[in-house]
Each structure stands twice: as structure tokens, then as C-alpha cells.
Amino acid sequence: MRPSKLGDAEIEYSMTAIKGWTRAGNSITKTFAFAKFLDGIAWIGKVAAAAERMDHHPDLDIRYTKVTATLSTHSAGGLTRSDFDLAKEMDALA
Q1: Which tens digits make up the pLDDT trace of 17-75?
Q2: Alpha-carbon torsion (32, 56, 61, 48), positive or negative
Q3: What is the CATH number of the domain that holds 74?
Q4: 30 located within any domain
Q5: Which residue range forms the structural domain that includes residue 67?
Q6: pTM higher than 0.90
Q7: Is 25 exposed, middle or buried (0-12, 13-18, 19+ CB in 10 A)?
Q8: 47, 90 in Cβ contact below 8 A?
């Protein structure tokens, strides 16, 4: 079953539950900073396992000790509950 795209009011409400994330159109983004390069890589491994379990996969950009995550549900054409669930999981793993 394809996730349902959230409306603007639902997105704004959901944004209040995830600190440090910003919305840019049909996606949400956050940059995570780590003390060392390998700390970020280890975090990515944990995120990958969670994403696979949730069947929802982020776009990740690695820049030395910073990893920028971008979430959007392409099949729904925007943000869904899955994006916010994965954002919360990524925060918990950081």
C-alpha cells in the first residue's frame, strides 16, 4: 500500500515533533554533525538498518564529519508519515 501524502497542516504539525529539521518543498532535511568521520559512518550503518526495516530510504550526503539527510516519499509525490517516522528514528540514533 502506497503511503498517503500529508497536507500542509499535517506537515506543519509533524514538524513540531522533530527538532532541527527544515522543510524545503516536498522534503525535510537535517545535517547531523559527528566528532569523527567514522562516527558518522557508523551512524549511517544504523540508519541503513532502520531504513531497511521501515522500507523507507533517505538520501544521505556525507561531508567529512557532517551527514545531511533528506527525506521525501517520491512515490507519494511529497511528505508522508513515513518521512517523519524515519526522521524521529534518525534523531534517536544520533
Answers
A1: 999 999 999 999 999 999 999 999 999 999 999 999 999 999 999 999 999 999 999 88
A2: positive
A3: 3.30.1360.20
A4: yes
A5: 24-93
A6: yes
A7: exposed
A8: yes
